Amino acid sequence: MSVNIQTIKDIRSYLTKELKNIYHEQELTALINIIIKTLLDTTKLHQIYDADYAIQYSQAERIIEICQELKSGKPVQYILGETMFYDCVIKVTPATLIPRPETEELVQLVLKENDGYKGNIIDFGTGSGCIAIALAANLPDSKITGIEISDEALNVAIKNAHLNNVTASFLKRDILNFDISSIPESGIIVSNPPYVRVSEKNLMNRNVLDFEPYQALFVNDDDPLIFYRAIISIAEKILLPEGNLYFEINEALGASMLNLMSESGFSNIAIFKDINGKERIIRGTKNG
Question: For the whole prediction, is pTM greater than 0.70?
């Protein structure tokens, strides 16, 4: 190994030099902290910021590997195999989307409006299980079921539930050809389904297009609400009267979603903007 990396200070110096033209300074600092924390497998801040803390040769080699992968555009979450979501450690693979801050806002809204809820919750298109697991961690008396079509994603979700010591069930189902058997009636349904239109691909970053699962992101332009209509149809059968339905949505399709939910007989419909001021979440209540 030609690069001399022996301490935390060396890691910071090396990664800063190699990546400063790719990441903004604040983003790079946060990225380096995540890498060091994961590499050392520690939550102890004094280790992360101890400039003279000595690392092993194998760890130094891994730093160089991580750096090369970052230069290729691969997201750090996939490189490290995990990320944080609503104070939960979530393992991710190329079979699952990387959980995003906007989805944390979806979870936050569900928790805010359903404090102390003890009934059933269904999470459609659970992926890594991040929504289901965050809700289970914060509503321990509720019963969470995550629905997913991908076997690989289901395996990740099950592992994440164990990792975070929460109780949640995960079932393989096709939302577009749904079998409601063994699905309990629920007071809350939540979903972050695929909603990026194919025509919007040119607006996406390379690290998303090249590495994240296409089927979990994109829908055809001629029917961008296909998953929402399917989930609403399911909700008509299993959502309890006065139960709430929550969706993360495409910022450009808020009006269309408002119309869809209104035409489907939901009341108390509201759209919520995310931290960037974009219409990102919609909630509706099933009429009694």
Answer: yes
